[in-house]
Amino acid sequence: MGTDAVVLGAGTAGMVAALRLAAAGASVLVLAEGEGGLPLAPAQIDVLGYRPQLVLDPLGEIPGFLDSRPDHPYRLVEAAEVEAGLDWFLELAAPLGYTGNPHQNRLQPTAVGALRPTCLVPETMAAGDLSGGGSVLVVGLKGFRDFHAPLLAENLALARPPSGAEVRARSVEVSLLGDPRDLRPQLLVRRLEERPVLAELGREIRSRLEQEDLVGVPAVLGLERSHEVWQRLQELVGRPVFEIPTPPPSQPGQRLQQHLFRALRRLGGEVRLGARASGYRASGDRLVAVKVVTAAREVEIPADRFVLATGGIGTGGITAGPEGELREEVFGARVSRGGAPEEPLAEYMATQPLDRLGVEVDDEQRPVGGAGGALFENLWVAGAALAGAEPWREKSGEGISLATGYRAARLAGGGRA
Amino acid sequence: MTAVVWGAEAWAEVRSSLDRCIKCTVCETACPVAAVTELFPGPKTVGPQAERFRTGDHSPDLSVDYCSGCGICSRVCPQEVRIAELNSRARAELKRERGAPLRDQLVARPGLLGRAGRPVAPLFNWAMANPVIRWAGERTLGIHHKAPVPRSTTRTFSYWVGHHAGAKSARRVVYFHGCSTQWYEPHIGQKVTAILEHNGYQVVIPKQDCCGLPLQSNGLFPAARGAVTRLARQLVPGGTDDLPVISSSTSCGLMLKREAREILGADSPELRSVSQRTYDIFEFLLELHHRGELRTDFKPVPLTVAYHAPCQQQNQLIGKPALGILRLIPGLRLVELDRSCCGIAGTYGVKREKYEIAMRVGEPLFADIQAEGPDLVACDSETCRWQISAATGATSVHPLEILHRAYGGS
Known about the structure:
Chain A is an alpha/beta fold. Helices cover about 30% and strands about 20% of the residues of chain A. In chain B, helix 3 crosses helix 5, helix 12 crosses helix 22 and helix 14 packs across helix 16.
């Protein structure tokens, strides 16, 4: 009658845990203050990109990386389970055409034209792996302010992949939809699902093509119909086309989010947004319910098992007070400060110990309690809430969320209590 | 315990939530209006971004009037910025400065229209169905000739209440039925009463007026504040000040639960008391069920029903409790429609300049309904039901009508 598992947080880690729990037969409720990072991020699955040197085989290099970073969240998950999680994701995200090899990083252009190591990408970005070089026509759209084709092309032309191969790039700007002053992404992405609009874009690009083998476009090729839009555009221009991520919002991220939300709904689970978890009720070392603020009052949501996937300090899962005190917002779980005093950094971009702050967990991904045991026996932590990582530097964010979310669901167990 | 704040404090809290905006644009991706028209640049743009130009009495931005007030932006915001609430206030400021047209004054007062229509209901309904009169209404008033309008009834809900010999019980609830049940759909109120009585409750139904929601969404705040404060007084007849208040209209229920506090800044002892005791009918029934107190003597209902959760129900942050109850009914094939908004947003989609936008917003929902071809569409909100029926031709009902049928009602 009630809920078997409550997952707090609707980002990658929370959705992975929820989907795995639901697939194992549990009734699952995802509670989140709002949408997570999914609609903002490029929807590429990073596993490990730098350690700090460029990583070519992410799965293969995790053990060596852990030698230098024994507190990293990857320590929690066996290599075989990381791989199982990635394989599972590839299957789950097959309708979006996700592709990639966990033993082979790709080098994909960022929004400013740097080459970035990542592991799995949707089909609409697959042709953008420039590890082996290439000649790219970068297409900007007049009035669309979230994409700077000339900057992108200039930077791409400076990129040197480790293969030594050359990247050549040239930019053009095309007019679409009667040349509006302000082409907003939420409108643009839907208008491109209309065949005449897409045909106009295709014609414009084709007429500007010279010797380039590849066409890079802003990642706005449709939402629900992205497969058709992308494929049709390739036919129209006669070259492989790939999407390049834009600054937020991210259309590929929204596609992935919608896909995950729907997959959970099909398994009988529910995502409830806007409902902030405000506290909990426990009986001994067992968590009984989370408290949630509805429109009128605070209510309790009882469940058998709980997963904390509310993210770190960037998403409000952990907050800092005026004296620098750190707090995990829902359960008051112990937060690691990164193990060193905060001092001014000698180098501007050097690692600040606070970068790695997060919830301290035992080997079973449960928050550490007072006497060294688990804070609660039925609460597991996944994703960016975990201490020890610097995902933006390592390019490891989605991999950590996937692996620890996948494992949290296994530890929490499927089926009904 | 998280404290709920009222009055000036509630008003200030909504305003200061602005500071938490990190310009992440999640709200803009979720806004159903910005997705279909360039007239509305998006909730962040007209809200957290434009708000800094709204100093003193001056409101510089007309596009905020194209916000439908569905509230999805506030729900998806990961930083708890009260975007829809801020934009609602900005619209009210605009109306205060520039005046509200007669049309907005009219559609904001369902009781006025209900009272006018009731004595001549057949004539009123004929007129509303007459294309010539509707064209004239569009030209003179600005109410779109195709916009869905309810059918008036000669027998109001309060007339029925006056003739209903309710069951006596030690377990009592107060029923807040709202204007739509009173003037247009009295059968909804009759079924709510029957369902609650079937579960052993005595239903106290005080005389009541409008909650002020349509006034609020048309930017007429002083009148809206007066209406909701008066309603709260009406909903606490002697000896009922600790009873649950049950609402079968999702948007009016949300008005009592939160919007009176956060958007209008209204405050009174009765309002505070009623607000925290207000329940959506299915929220209440599902809690009964979780306590093992809901009667489940259901007859099979061999129908395919497509369920749409309206925005103002989702904004109560209680999930979709109607689904939890309907799933208990044998024989019922339930399809959850997976779309955010039908477009109507109360009175937004009846306006000449907004009708097409509202229809485009609802298009994915309408397409899903037509593809599914259900026997019935179930939706908790009256204006959404009218919009869905007008747009798709499908028969739409309140989900409690299906529950009523499962209990043996006709």
